[in-house]
Amino acid sequence: MLTAEQNTQLLAVEHDQRWSFAFFLPGCKSACESYFGDAVEKLVDDDVVHLLCYQSRKTAMLGKAQSESPAVVAHTTQDWAKRHEKRGGRDERLLREVAAHVQKLLRVEGALTQLTDTSKVITWKQCQVTEPVASETPCMVVSREPPLLLAGDYFAESSFSGCLQSGVAAAEALSKLLGPPKAQQRWRADKLGEAPEMAAGLLPVEPAKAPELPVNGFQSAGLHGCAGLLTAPRQGPGLALTLSAQPGLDSSHRVLGPVLSGRRCFRRLEALVPLSHEAHPRVPIFFQLPKLEEEAKPQLRLEPYKDSAAQPFAEDPEEAALPPEELLDLADVELNGRDVEVADLKQSTFSRERQQGVDKVEEALTKLLQRLEGLENLDETLSGASQLRWRAHQDEATWGRQTNLRLALMKRPLDSSTEHTDDS
């Protein structure tokens, strides 16, 4: 059923591969505690083992009691897995090779195969997608009659988001192939007087007229199509400010309108946006509202902005570059936020989501450092409190050196976990 082009696209998908060896080691708890310290995994990256995980400690972190018989899991390197890709998980020689390697790492006496209560081997011949399908859409229509579609993370990216993106695209494509449900066809035929063929979508139907938009250019039902929109959940309290197009909010939030002022506040919010885990701020954010006059009515009064054609400030490019003191203040705000985010990442267990968060934080810190390195002769341009702070920094070292040190301190605990491996 596949066309030659589709077959070529699917065959071009590339995966990495790894093997995982689980060892249950009664009597070796002290050796495991000594090797791992407070960590739950250690990056090894030699010619055999990529990552060694303290699996029983991970289990205990989920609320279960930690066994006196610890369990460790060794994830092999990709090169090692490729060298032995034609062998099976029951190969005792490979088990002994990895066991001897883990024994040296843990520094336990005696052969690990003799100290092991039991072991388990998982061979991931197809692990994480490294090269997805080269396609314009994150799914593939194999047949229209009968409908048959392919979907999965190999059409997008190897993550839960990739699976979700592909699944939604496949559902939308299937919905178009199937047409309106029969119950809807009957309702349209009975209530609207349409011919059954037209209700079923078999005859051309006039396209629906686009709903009129309110004066602010956005529809309260959705349209989270750009940055700089103030939006509120349809159920429950809260407010959100979009920093980019967020169509995923259309079903759960309603747009209140574009934010037309407060660019300085917006820049600080953007600097504090979390790059990992849940989308909640790591640093508390407070909004100060003007005090209402005593005679003012308690009800909230909403009116369209008088200039209905005004462009949201988030899309309005700034003509002049920011002054150095503003850049330094923004850098300080972002570093404070990243400090807390790094601390959260250090406490989280090893996962694909954590690795993606690490990559995003490191990328943001690198860009921040590049911006700071571009600032020169700051003592000649700063004034007031900013100049005093700059001179205080100059007493010990340059701002660039201090920032380098701070970034190094923040990134060092993460360098041991900068490559993703699935846990068993």
TrEMBL record:
This protein is called: Uncharacterized protein
Under the GO molecular function aspect, what terms does this record hold? oxidoreductase activity, acting on NAD(P)H
- Spell out the InterPro entries in the cross-references: FAD/NAD-bd_sf, RNLS
- Organism, scientific name: Effrenium voratum
**GO cellular-component term (any):** extracellular region
